[in-house]
């Protein structure tokens, strides 16, 4: 066994942790640093390791002159809707897979999970003509529905694993107390399942928020454009490359997801069913 | 008055038969204990009475009404689960009042019934706590409280004490005895601990491998087990068993000696005899005597358990002596016992009875 208490081990361990941390966080740092540099400093041949004269100009321009507020609004609308939709579907489906025994339960679940095995781009090729047919192209509803592809299979599986851990006796106790199946689900199971549901919500929120491919393809009109393709088209197109603006806007665009995960951490720590059994 | 009647009950999971031809009547107010080794189907039987598991064949009737297809909440029963199964997000009071709330009872009535149950169980001061803020024993009380609040006709308990430590278990056992006196309701209690069964039960149902082996009062089962399984299961320490090696002159030959048997019993049918450790003596001549060597002795203070090795027996014979008894290990000794305390079994493991039931006293 590796003895973690010796000094050497500690040094090695901390060293590795720092190295990994550096690789993970350097891009984030570089984005932040670049967004704070004035254009002159940004386009020097030798990059400066940190902004000599930090400025919020890029942020100001992004918020006032660009379309960022509108893009963020669109993304928020689409992502919250699709995350709600996904989390709801995943919760009911996961519960049914975990706690009911019926014919075809396992195959249906496998079938669902197998959707995850196709490259998303490939699925888009089949979704596109379908949406054309159903007049869902260039609609927010269409985009929201298409995000099922990303998150639903894994979300359902996550919820399923959680529900499998919920003791059957809890459900049976409620049944013996006279609760109907739906009642049991809504008044006993759901209240103790907030953490996994929030997790799944954020998981699918993140997918839709960060998506570029689907939103770029399925949304055409400017006023429905979401943040990822919006940034790409605004800041890095054929005619200009406004790196400072792109960095500032990206950081602001990433904020909701980061905040979401910070909020989520509290849930991970809680013992969910503490006190139910034993 | 509530009566539970089970007739020809079977439970199958696919091809596996878990319960076979269960017939049982539980009288009103009776404290009935299902006891048996792990996996014998006690919980399954209890869950079927509760309505959580479906009946494969046979009938279940409560107060003369067949309840095979009646949902649990309509059967007038309340079950306390082995793992307590408290609702973790509800307070103790909400846990206890949940069934009444579902039944649409008035808030005042719920509060009153919860208060009364809490008083019986001495948990008034935890009513606002969540289950996770309670100790194991307190959770157990809440689980019982949740059942009491419903004022059921029959209480069902599935190994309610098995998650508690030994000391608490003894306390809670007395608590159950008190509860039984106080409520006077029909109770069915599952355990694999025969001490719990002996101390609590009016009636014990001994089960093994999905069948009922014997039904009777604790002392009936102790005095007159109908078969070898019950004889070995009821009583602690366990009964000593010895194979019969021959017979003659109304006596049975067993390893280490011979045993006198009553004239009315056909000696040729006896293949095995059993004698309880507490019915044997060391160094005292009695109607029957076996010769052996003391292998070890355990001094528990209150009792001394002597293990006597007898030639021809695989396991030593255990003899229960009083605590002050001092014995030398290694010495040859005489183990004496009375004829009336000998249990006789035929080749099917069934007990051979004397005309009068007057086995051990
Ligand atoms: N859903 C099921 N499918 C198949 N077999 C089952 C099922 N539930 C229980 N059994 C079997 O039924 C038998 C009886 O189980 P049960 O839980 O009633 O035993 P028990 O007497 O309560 O044991 P314990 O003292 O360990 O609680 C066991 O052999 C078990 O494997
Ligand atoms: Mg059991």
TrEMBL record, chain A:
Pfam families: BPD_transp_1. GO terms for biological process: transmembrane transport. PROSITE patterns: ABC_TM1. It comes from the Bacteria. InterPro entries: BP-dep_ABC_trans_perm, MetI-like, MetI-like_sf. It is found in: Cell membrane. One of its GO terms (cellular component) is plasma membrane. It is a multi-pass membrane protein. Keywords: Cell membrane, Membrane, Sugar transport, Transmembrane, Transmembrane helix, Transport. Residues 72-264 form the ABC transmembrane type-1 domain. Belongs to the binding-protein-dependent transport system permease family. MalFG subfamily. This is Maltose/maltodextrin transport system permease protein MalG.
From TrEMBL, chain B:
GO terms for cellular component: ATP-binding cassette (ABC) transporter complex, substrate-binding subunit-containing; maltose transport complex. SUPFAM superfamilies: MOP-like (SSF50331), P-loop containing nucleoside triphosphate hydrolases (SSF52540). Residues 4-234 form the ABC transporter domain. Transmembrane segments: none annotated. InterPro entries: AAA+_ATPase (IPR003593), ABC_transporter-like_ATP-bd (IPR003439), ABC_transporter-like_CS (IPR017871), ABC_transpr_MalK-like (IPR015855), ABC_transpr_MalK/UgpC-like (IPR047641), Mo/tungstate-bd_C_term_dom (IPR008995), NA-bd_OB-fold (IPR012340), P-loop_NTPase (IPR027417). Keywords: ATP-binding, Nucleotide-binding, Transport. This is Sorbitol ABC transporter ATP-binding protein /mannitol ABC transporter ATP-binding protein. It comes from Aliiruegeria haliotis.
């Amino acid at each position: 066994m590796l003895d973690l208490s010796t000094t050497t081990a500690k040094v090695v361990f901390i060293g590795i942790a720092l190295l990994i941390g550096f690789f993970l966080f350097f891009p984030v740092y570089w984005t932040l640093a670049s967004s704070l540099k004035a254009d002159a400093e940004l386009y020097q041949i030798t990059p400066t390791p940190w902004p000599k004269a930090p400025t919020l100009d890029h942020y100001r321009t992004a918020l006032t002159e660009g379309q960022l507020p509108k893009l963020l609004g669109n993304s928020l609308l689409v992502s919250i809707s699709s995350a709600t939709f996904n989390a709801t579907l995943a919760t009911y489906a996961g519960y049914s897979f975990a706690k009911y025994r019926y014919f075809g339960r396992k195959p249906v679940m496998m079938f669902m999970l197998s959707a995850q095995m196709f490259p998303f781009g490939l699925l888009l090729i089949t979704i596109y003509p379908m949406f054309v047919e159903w007049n869902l192209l260039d609609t927010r509803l269409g985009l929201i529905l298409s995000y099922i592809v990303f998150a639903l299979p894994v979300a359902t599986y996550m919820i399923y694993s959680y529900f499998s851990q919920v003791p059957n006796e809890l459900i049976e106790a409620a049944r013996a107390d006279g609760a109907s199946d739906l009642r049991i689900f809504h008044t006993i199971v759901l209240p103790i399942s907030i953490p996994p549901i929030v997790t799944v919500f954020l998981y699918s929120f993140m997918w839709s928020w960060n998506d570029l491919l689907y939103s770029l393809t399925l949304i055409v009109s400017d006023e429905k454009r979401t943040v990822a393709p919006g940034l790409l088209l605004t800041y890095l197109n054929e005619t200009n490359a406004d790196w400072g603006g792109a960095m500032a806007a990206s950081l602001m665009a990433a904020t909701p997801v980061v905040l979401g995960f910070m909020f989520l951490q509290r849930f991970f720590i809680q013992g969910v069913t503490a006190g139910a059994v034993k | 008055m509530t009566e539970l009647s089970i007739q020809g009950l079977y439970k199958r999971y696919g091809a596996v038969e878990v319960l076979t031809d269960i017939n049982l009547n539980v009288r009103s107010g009776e404290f009935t204990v299902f006891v048996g080794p792990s996996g014998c189907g006690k919980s399954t039987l209890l869950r079927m009475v509760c309505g959580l598991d479906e009946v494969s064949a046979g009938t279940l009737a409560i107060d003369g009404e067949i309840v095979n297809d009646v949902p649990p909440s309509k059967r007038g029963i309340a079950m306390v689960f082995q793992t307590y199964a408290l609702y973790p997000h509800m307070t103790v009071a909400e846990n206890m009042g949940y069934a009444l709330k579902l039944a649409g009872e008035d808030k005042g009535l719920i509060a009153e019934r919860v208060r009364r149950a809490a008083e019986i169980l001495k948990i008034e001061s935890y009513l606002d706590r969540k289950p996770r803020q309670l100790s194991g024993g307190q959770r157990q009380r809440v689980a019982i409280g949740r059942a009491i609040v419903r004022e059921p006709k029959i209480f069902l308990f599935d190994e309610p004490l098995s998650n508690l430590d030994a000391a608490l278990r003894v306390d809670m056992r007395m608590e159950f005895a008190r509860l039984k006196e106080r409520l006077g309701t029909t109770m069915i209690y599952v355990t694999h601990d025969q001490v719990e069964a002996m101390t609590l039960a009016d009636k014990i149902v001994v089960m093994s491998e999905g069948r009922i082996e014997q039904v009777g009062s604790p002392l009936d089962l102790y005095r007159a087990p109908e078969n070898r399984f019950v004889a070995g299961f009821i009583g602690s320490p366990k009964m000593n068993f010895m194979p019969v090696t021959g017979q003659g002159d109304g006596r049975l030959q067993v390893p280490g000696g011979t045993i006198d048997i009553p004239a009315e019993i056909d000696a040729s049918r006896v293949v095995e005899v059993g004698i309880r450790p507490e019915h044997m003596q060391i160094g005292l001549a009695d109607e029957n005597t076996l010769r052996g060597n003391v292998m070890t002795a355990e001094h528990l203070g209150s009792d001394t358990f002597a293990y006597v090795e007898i030639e021809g027996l695989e396991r030593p014979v255990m003899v229960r002596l009083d605590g002050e008894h001092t014995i030398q290990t290694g010495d040859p000794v005489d183990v004496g016992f009375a004829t009336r305390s000998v249990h006789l079994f035929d080749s099917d493991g069934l007990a051979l009875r004397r005309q009068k039931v007057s086995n051990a006293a």
